[in-house]
Specification:
eight-stranded mixed beta sheet; Metallo-beta-lactamase, Chain A; binds zinc ion; Rossmann fold; alpha/beta; single chain
């Protein structure tokens, strides 16, 4: 018998963290940060709903912060076991976790300035650089396709998940109680699409007792595309944006997405398919991570530039320091500015958006998923005005989106991946997706012949007893934050309201009308 608990990414797409108890041995699969609105972020500061010190080891699927970002907090709270991951994941984390620690520090400082003004006690950062370094010291690299034994009686094998550099699905084998049988389990991790630059499509073994599968795009199918077609679409967007005379600003994840863009833009520049331009990659993390990609360049698929050219076009500026970043603000046209974060909810990209979004000749080009509640979500939803760093900005720039840079399998690819893993004797747990996505994926899996009784949509903090192909819910822990606030909380409502009010006041025909609007609102209060 084993117990499987979902401590994140159940009904949401962030905070991946599952715990397995096999006999007396407890271990974790991923320990990610929650991302999204302020309510979701609060989960990161709250206590773990389990004893961190009781986990003996951790199996990490990939480096993305929503899968790895709370590992330093785990260490801070007493975890001392080894953390297994692929070697590229370890290399990426050596930059990503330290970067995350810096973000935690500056978030705490900002919060504490606010708290001091209200006479409240300061808060500690969720973790420090020292905690991150301690977590990094626990990393143990394990390659794909070979078994290792993190604990006597528990075997693990990584499979390529095709999602990002070093990403893996984790296959587990352990004794099914005392009955002499072996239980076989598979955690998909995040799965990549069939057509993805740098990595082959995801694969794994067949025949399992239990599968835990992500469902991010369970309710979405993308148009089929090739990498060439995708690059051509990018070219059109860049040519259109640059010929309008303004800058093209691209919010992009620092890891992988930024390198895919640099690769594609590098190819287009080498072909002479773009007007003369300077390409800024303004993210210290992206710059560091690009070096990791160069280290593994020999193992990357679909690279159309030789290793000396890759990411090194003379028109590229990989920006590290703040002064250089600020200097980009003086450029009002003709540049491509790639910066993190990809959902524009933090980081230097917010400055570039502030500087360009009100210019009618500028373009903001989104190339990734925009989670509800993030600035990127509001901009791509067509809001006429947005609030950044406490100020309102009119959206005059051209807002464009390219969907085909996604690192996630779409609906059809998820279905194929699950069906290729058949037969599944026990249960398929669908996690890492919002409820609409999971329900749709469950429906389609049933349509393809899977027994609907075998498909489980676990809730946050819900545990299951796994016995002989069955899974019995042991119930949920009390809610850590109200579930209803996860997609949109009062902070989101407030930002939307202030932006709408500012717009209304701007559009009012005279001051008299403005005063009437304010008087009506005061009355409502
Ligand atoms: Zn991921």
């Amino acid at each position: 018998m084993a117990t499987l608990s979902f401590y994140g990414a159940a009904g949401t797409v962030t905070g991946s963290c599952s715990m397995l108890q096999v006999g007396d041995t407890r271990f974790l699969v991923d320990c990610g940060m929650f991302q999204g609105n302020k309510t979701i972020h609060e989960l990161n500061a709250k206590d773990f709903p389990f004893d961190a010190a009781s986990a003996e080891f951790l199996i990490l699927t990939h480096a993305h912060i929503d899968h790895s970002g709370l590992m330093p907090k785990l260490v801070k709270h007493g975890f001392t076991g080894p953390i297994y991951c692929t070697p590229p994941t370890a290399d990426l984390l050596s930059f990503m976790l330290l970067d995350s620690a810096k973000i935690q520090k500056s978030n705490a400082e900002r919060q504490n300035r606010k708290r001091a003004r209200k006479g409240e006690d300061p808060v500690d950062p969720i973790y420090t650089e020292e905690d991150a370094r301690k977590a990094l010291a626990l990393l143990r690299g394990q390659g794909y396709d070979s078994w290792f034994e993190p604990h006597p009686g528990v075997s693990v094998r990584y499979w390529n998940a095709g999602h990002m550099l070093g990403s893996a699905s984790a296959e587990l084998k352990f004794a099914d109680g005392d009955n002499g049988n072996t239980m076989r389990m598979l955690f998909s991790g995040d799965l990549g699409p069939e057509e993805k630059a740098f990595h082959p499509e995801p694969t794994a073994e067949t025949g399992f007792d239990y599968i835990v599968c992500e469902s991010t795009y369970g309710d979405r199918d993308r148009d089929d595309y090739t990498l060439e077609k995708r690059r051509e679409m990018l070219r059109k967007e860049l040519v259109r944006g640059l010929s309008a005379g303004g800058n093209v600003v691209i919010p992009a994840f620092a890891v992988e997405r930024s390198q895919e863009l640099l690769h594609d833009i590098g190819v287009l520049l080498a072909e002479g398919a773009l007007p003369e331009t300077t390409v800024f990659l303004d993210s210290p993390l992206a710059k560091a991570v690009t070096e990791v990609f160069i280290k593994y360049a020999g193992s990357l698929d679909d690279v159309e530039l030789n290793e000396r050219q890759l990411f090194r076009d003379p028109r590229f500026r990989l920006v590290q320091d703040v002064e250089e970043s600020k200097a980009i603000n003086l450029i009002t046209g003709g540049a491509i500015i790639i910066s993190a974060s990809g959902m524009a909810d933090a980081g230097r990209i917010q400055h570039h958006i502030k500087n360009n979004i009100w210019r009618s000749n500028a373009t903001i080009l989104f190339v990734g998923y925009q989670a509800p509640g993030t600035l990127g979500y509001y901009i791509t939803s067509g809001e006429p005005m947005v609030r950044i760093h406490g100020k309102e900005y009119l959206v005059k720039a051209e807002i464009r989106q390219l969907g085909n840079y996604s690192a996630h399998a779409d609906q059809g690819e998820l279905l194929d991946w699950v069906m290729e893993r058949a037969p599944v004797a026990g249960r398929i747990f669908l996690n890492h997706g919002d409820d609409d996505a999971r329900e749709e994926l469950a429906r389609l899996l049933a349509e393809r012949g899977l027994d609907p009784e075998k498909i489980v949509l676990p809730q946050m903090d819900e545990s299951f007893e796994l016995i002989a192909g069955d899974a019995r819910s042991k119930g949920r822990l009390p809610e850590r934050v109200p579930q209803t606030e996860l997609l949109s909380d009062w902070n989101n409502d407030y930002a939307a309201f202030i932006a709408a009010l500012t717009l209304r006041l701007t559009d009012a025909k005279d001051d008299d009308q403005r005063r009437r609007i304010i008087a009506q609102l005061r009355k409502a209060l």
